[in-house]
Amino acid sequence: MTLSDVKMNCNRILLRIDASIRPARARTGKGRAAGNRPPAIRTSRARGAARPSHGRARPCAFVRRRRAGPRRTTASSAQGVALRRTIGHARARANPLGAARDATARVASAPRGVRDGARRALTRFKYRRGCARKVIASLRPTSPRVPTMPNPRRLRLTLTVALAAAALGFAALRSPGWFGAPKPPPRIVVSGNIEAHESVLSFTQVQAPIVYLPFDEGARVTRGTVLARVDDRVYRRQTDIDRANVDVQTAQVEANRSNVAALEHGVLSDRFDLDEKRLDFVRADTLARQSAVSQQSRDLAQTAARQSAAALARDEALLAAARNDVALAVAGVAAAQAKRKLDEATLSYTELAAPFDGVIAVRHAELGQLAGPGVAIFTIAELDHVWLRAYVNEPDVGRIRLGEPADVRTDAYPSAVYRGRISFVSPQAEFTPKTVETHEERVTQVYRVRIDIDNPTHELLPGMPADATIAALASGR
User: Which residues does the UniProt record annotate as the domain CusB-like beta-barrel (predicted)?
Assistant: First the structure.
């Protein structure tokens, strides 16, 4: 079969399809002339229909009637039919695939009486069109390929790409992270909330109205900054009284010490006088026994010695009393100084200072409010160093260790990764708290862990939910 034979058979089959469909459309008033668009192309065979035979297509009844005798038509309609057939044959020769699609659409919209015969003819057309493709492919001339010189620009580009690929491959082979990298260890994901060291500040030793309250919530303060002050006039007055009392007691001690010194000098004189009087009595007593002096002189010497002994005893008693007064005065000075220090400490409690660098989280009081023990003034949080309170499932607690790094992410900053380290693992198991969402059931026992995080930018705030990723160990610790 040649190419011309295949084309002739295809044109003949299209002629039969056109002859069998167009008169039926004219009688029923359907088709493009009636303003209706053809339905979708049906390319699959109906279920249960017999396979089309590939022999010669049998003309339908309408074609047989046309062969029996010509139909009476006017000259204009005959010319129109001939013109449409000529155009259809030209389209079939120029574009067989488009002609086949058009024929399929026309067959699908044809009346039931001529549809079966037209479908058989269309099947035969499709088969022969396939044969025509094979013949055309076999008759297409093949020309030997003429070798051409390579393009210098393309050759340079190819060499550049090849050298770049070789350099990348060499770098990849030398880098341990590209090829042959070890498999990353399994990771444990824990959930929890950010916590920080918080302190509730109040006036614990004084009770007075607040006269100084310059900071509000969110203010950053440093350690030692005065946050509030109460009225301290009463406490300052008491401190002044204590200072004056200390001065009086100190002066009394000095006076008593001077008296002690005078009494000590008098006692020393009395002792010398007593010794002298005793010598006079001994000499008078000896002379009286020898009848050198009278008995009266002896008695006078004895009386003088006794008086001197009594004076010495009196002065010693006064010296002891003076020394006791000095001791009491010294104790009074110590007591006055202690009271002064206590009142000064109480005076210092009239100012409320920040115990550490942090941020004022809550301001509980207002200016003029009566402050006292148990009345909260501020809640200050230390945000430079925060931690994540999380929970690890019981099977995973043996795969983590203290000091192990962890990557922390929050819902507020999903693209930021905060570096932390495990600083605490609870030795006791507990049930999952209701405020923490985990992947396991809530009745599963977990262990509380603490992950310390440096927070210099103060982005992490207490109460934020966060997730931490921990590199799990291959074996238990």
Answer: 386-471
